[in-house]
Amino acid sequence: MEIAVGIDLGSTTTKAVILNEKNELLGRGITNSRSNYDVACSIARDEAFIRARFALTGGFLGTDWETSETRNAVLDELERRFRMQQHLEQVSRLREELHHAAEAPRHAEYRSGLNDALDTILDSMVKNAPALYDTGVERKSDFFRDLASAEYMDLANKISDPKGIDFETLCGVYDAAILDVENTASDLSFDANITAALEETLAASHLNLEGDADKLRNAVVQARDAELYERGTVGTGYGRQRLPFPKEQIRSEILCHGLGAHYMFPNTATVLDIGGQDTKAIQVDSKGIVTSFQMNDRCAAGCGRYLGYIADEMNLALHELGPLAQKATTKVKISSTCTVFAGAELRDRLAAGQRREDILGGLHRAIILRAMSLLARSGGVEEEFTFTGGVARNPAATQALRDLVEENYGNKTINISPDSIYTGAIGAALFAAQGTEAPAQEVSA
Amino acid sequence: MTNPKQPSSPGTIAEVRKEESMNLQKQMIGGHYQALERAPKEGRKVVYTFVPGNLTELIRSFDLLPVLPEINALQSGMRKLSGGYIAEAEKSGHSEDVCTYVKCDIGMMKKGNISPTGTKIPDPDLLLLSYTGCFTFMKWFELLREEYGCPVAMLHVPYQADGTIHAHHRDYIVEQIKTELIPKLEQVSGQKYDEDRLKESLKLSAEAEDDFVHVIESAKNVPSPIDAYFGGVFYIGPMFTAFRGTPEGVEYYKTLCAEIDERVRLGLGPITPDGEMTEERFRLVVEGPPNWTSFREFWKMFYEEGAVFVASSYTKVGGLYDRGFRHDPEHPLETLADYCMGCYTNLGLPSRIELLQDYINEYKADGFMINSVKSCNSFSAGQLLILRQIEERTGVPGGFIESDLVDPRYFSAANIKNRIESYLQMLEQRRKTGVAS
Amino acid sequence: MRPALEEIVGRANALYEDLDFGAVTDWKRRNPGRKAIGYMPIYVPREIVHAAGMLPVGIVGGSDRLEIIRGDAYFQSYICHIPRSTIELALSGRLDSLDGMLFPSICDVIRNLSGMWKLLFPDRYVRYIDVPQNFDARVGGEFWRREIEALRDDLVVLGGEPITDDALNKSIAVYNENRRALIDLYKARSEQPWVFPTPELYVVMRAGNVLPPDEHTAMIRAYLDEAPREDREDKDHSRIVIVGTFCEQPPLGLLRTLERAGCWIVGDDLLLGNRWIETEIPTEGKPMENLSQAFIEHSTATASRYDAERAKGESLIQSVRDNEAEGVIFCAPSFCDPALLDQPMLVNALDREGISHTQFKYSEDTGQFGVIHEQAGTFSDSIRLWSEV
Amino acid sequence: MISTAVSSEILTAGIDVGTSSVKAAIIRMNAGGWKRDDVEVLALRAERIRRRDLKQVINESFHTVLEDAGVSEKDLAYVASTGEGELVHFRRGHFFGMTTHARGAVYMLPGSRAVLDVGALHGRAMRIDGRSKVLSYRMTTQCASGSGQFLENVARYLGVALEEVGPLSKEAKEPEMVSSICAVLAETDVINMVSRGISTSDILKGIHLSMAGRYIKLLRAIGATECDVAVTGGLAADEGLIQAMRELIQKDGIPMLIQEDPQSIHAGAIGAALWGGYRHEVLERKRQSA
Ligand SMILES: Nc1ncnc2c1ncn2[C@@H]1O[C@H](COP(=O)(O)OP(=O)(O)O)[C@@H](O)[C@H]1O
Ligand SMILES: Nc1ncnc2c1ncn2[C@@H]1O[C@H](COP(=O)(O)OP(=O)(O)O)[C@@H](O)[C@H]1O
Ligand code: SF4
Ligand code: SF4
Ligand code: SF4
After folding, report:
1. Nearest CA distance, A277 vs chain D (angstrom)
2. Does residue D4 belong to any structural domain of this protein?
3. pLDDT > 80? residue C96
4. Would the pLDDT of A188 be above 80?
């Protein structure tokens, strides 16, 4: 099967998508860009291929299953088992790196105690894994780092002893270890982890798969062995210059976001993208071709990172921020331009007795206000309007955007896709699929 | 000189030709700085003044030597000296928010007033404050007045808010020349005002102006033989500074004209620091001055992609010759007044937009770019509206980048490159899919 | 606060906070068919607008209460704040009651804004007023007379009625009254800054931007009567003059912060557009010549005006002396070229006189005053603690 | 000089409320005294605020420092606040940050003619005279790149405790130079460096050098190039930063002397206490002459 791959090397997250011959979305992958760019790029890509193979598995399973529900349940089980395998693989990497970090000279005095404590934590993490991947459990994040951090901190806090192995020490080794876990590509591929997942799924009693075991096995094997020919790969995003691609395979993120948004919502005329460290306002024509754009890139203020920083400051997970901000009842005006100062302002305001929800509401509005200026600069908001980028996942941000668009441009259709974070990568993949100008790349398999 | 002895490859001819006018200019500028250095010894007096609305012919008619601090600043920028000068000025209490030309000049002065070519620039005997198109000029010379304690002659040029020169505007300038400038110039130089000499000089100006227009309009050819922005800043040099109304100026533009005509004949593109541009992929019109501290790097971002600037507003800050203005020896003071009022930054926003719009049409441009500089409110305030209006009126998409004139802190190469790249890719994409512009 | 004072200050505050310029709409309702003309700082001959039977309305941006959405689309981050909020006011329809707008030349930003206005609001009257930088009566004076005569002629066309010399002389008299009241108010504050706290004085003065001049004069007079009846105590503060606030206005919070940090403001250049002529203008003879003469001879020195005669800082030093101030705070809008380029020269002048000074920047929508509080406080500390040693 | 007419021993307290920590000092001094001998510091306290209620931290710090000094609140002649002192409701008077840091610096290092106060969010340089009058100053702008907070973030991402930062930086061999970067985005860059195999020491030293460059610029801007400079505030405790500054001025041949004191972080609190003593005396004199 011929596929086209798009990679969006963002400042915060790296995204990859795979399109089939019909330009249908076959697979997508995402990872933190924090680690080294090449690694991030290959992790996201691998992840997209994994998704693609799961999608293929579904296809090979066919529709002649009892009910589509059972079919989906089986696929879901398979994928969760697979994810758990991956998770355990990474936990064991983490164990290695933690013990390695504990080798630092300054831990000499209490090293054995520290190692014991680490093992206690990690054993619990292993033990808790199945629960984390149980049916219907909603995980807090797609990223191992986030999942592991939350759990580790929680466990560390419980077992730490201010007089013995204290919390700070446990945090210290973790900060060091997680970096290395992220920066090394472990083998998390479909090939390496699917077999165990398959067997577990087959053994899962609640699915009663005895009769269909071969069918499932065959589908998995077929998906695993299916050949995916890369018709083309195009890279985009903040770090695109660092991708190991020739120049023809690199596209500006503006064009990709325009095209990607058009793909998801064909009537799109205006696109707003708020990513980790820049914001773009783009106008596109009826074919998804960019007609004008504006971007700001002064600093982290007003972008996704800003929210990340604030979340940290408030001890919240990123995805908890929006819902909390939506509980705001009064408008608070945030005036600091700098993210870090906003952090201080936040503390001041909390100290002054203002409600967390209200302050957060103000912060979200402040971010969207900046975006509104940029939109105005690029030519305003036209029908239809599509909001993309990671911040589109934040409900308080989208709410503030809806309000401000309504106030200033009247009633407009506002599109927000759950896949919005992949918009740039999709655009890149579409460019790869077009592959018109560089015939050379058609041969690459 | 139009008759090379033996046939050589077109590239070589171009190389030789290029050097001829370039060398000429180099000599002229070098000579001028040397004359300035010698001035105190030779008892010659020095007048500082600004590029827009400069009255070179009048100054020269008193045998005075002009110094243009803006040119010193931009040269310092190109030679990477400006960062240090600006720091020096900020140390003495100047805000980081204000025009960096001023700070660069003040810093240079505080460090001994050594010209970018290494010669000593003498202190001014007179500050001729040609207050044209920019308020900062006034502050600039007030600052210098404090420093040097020399006399100032203020020439206030009214703004062309509605695009017409009103009688009371012209009268006002002529009166100021008569009652303020000429007496002070006479006093400083010890010479009487000699109108015939001024007329002579104005005649030479007009002559060079014809050739100059021919050069900048050569960009109407496809491919354009010149880059009217990055290359343009060299072509305006003699015309906008100390050489208008001089025989050397006339000579320079004659030589340049011949070179460019030859390039047109051979169908050659512009010369860049990396050699000749072989393929003209984009024809752009640009508004705003360039960045000087990373001039080459900035230029490269365009020529690498086959983008050539066919017209620019910056090359009009010292007069809109291509719109028909010529110095008129028959009405010497009135023509000086009209010249001052017609400089680009002295035009109202509506006139600026019309001009750019005409350029886009006349020069068959497929793109429009604004380089907005932090320093300059005169240029920058309102540019975002210019962008919108141009897009609306011409259908040509606009690109917007931000940098500064001579403050290296405000040239963020990665960001600027990102924008330029995105912009050019967008033009390309539109072209490919047949979006009419 | 006593009710009588409360009423005056409350009204002034309400006018200040009303971003919709309701006072102007009201005036037009009460005066059907008459027009309102906006003007920006500083040098606008309001007398002529008044004589045309129109209401001159001072526009100085949108303060910290205006949310900027469209305004930022027109200005880069390195341009001061006032033009963007002014554009925002207009684009959001808040200036619809204005039939015209005047832009005097004080800097390139306001200058270019006049052109933007023409393009954005092609149906409304717009005029750029070029202020001469030559102060010879026959040269600059003549130019200014012709410039303001052109304004007068425009207003005749716009209003459809002639403007007589008599009407002009009457308007000059009305504004003379207003100027006198403001001078009295400033003098009173300088004597007892705790009786006339600047944040309060400011809103009373600012009411003059939207009220007809005679009404405003009455308000100032009433305030001058009422404020001293309030029981207010002097504090151990230092006396300072602020400069740089002639165009974009500092937020009220900043003025409050200065007082909170131990500074009594006893001199300032706030809202200079309401008091740029320093004396009374003769009310007899040829009004246009008198107006022109007043500019040439008695207009206040600012960073936007060239002064060939006086040394830089002379008038600032005079103000320090007249008000018995102990220091100067340079308080200029960020990115304000005229104010910021003037500063080093003024600093030198103050240094020569041994007058202490400090400086910081603001923008009309500054909301965090922590740093300014700290700086102003330290400045006040250094005056207080060291004057005793 | 101040008259020593009512010179007697008094007890005063100074409380410096910062953005990241609260500092408190109790001193005994000869009222009106200016020399180090006139003053005895009885107790000092610095308490990180972390994410706690500020008022509570202030009260706790005050009471602990009183306890440490063995003094009761009513024995105090003057309680002075500085920093965000408005929350110190039991204060008698307030002095502003630069005033107190200057005073504290002159007390600790009497030869100082310039003070560099580097705290969590701001860096400020002041030129002062021998009696600690602030003659001129410059502050870092509204951007937290290169602040204490920035350094804390970096330390967190490197998994290093704040106290280790200095010693580690001093071990650096090939400092990795960083351009001035956004405090928020620093994370990306730092993590990148780690992944390129650059040692923690070299990263920290690079950052210290970049910060030092900024601070020296501030000092230059106020014309302190030939002064003895006292570093105060929390970052004075960071020996890596101090060393980086010394290296830079040596490299550039600036005849500046950078000094710090173990009590540097308390400069504000001590300065406030000292000014409190001074005001007490002024007020006493006024009362007596009345
Ligand atoms: N689940 C989520 N909930 C809320 N916000 C999120 C979520 N995931 C990502 N974000 C936001 O999106 C930002 C990253 O956006 P992205 O488009 O990936 O940026 P970039 O392309 O620059 O890496 C993060 O900084 C964060 O603010
Ligand atoms: N031992 C230490 N080593 C390095 N840095 C330190 C140390 N102690 C404190 N700091 C730094 O000092 C800063 C706090 O300084 P401080 O002057 O107390 O700030 P503030 O007054 O704003 O609270 C912290 O951000 C931290 O980075
Ligand atoms: S503001 Fe602009 S025109 Fe004026 S001096 Fe500076 S760069 Fe030149
Ligand atoms: S604040 Fe300053 S720069 Fe801005 S418009 Fe007013 S005078 Fe001009
Ligand atoms: S530290 Fe703050 S102001 Fe500076 S670049 Fe980062 S977010 Fe922007």
Report:
1. 8
2. no
3. yes
4. no
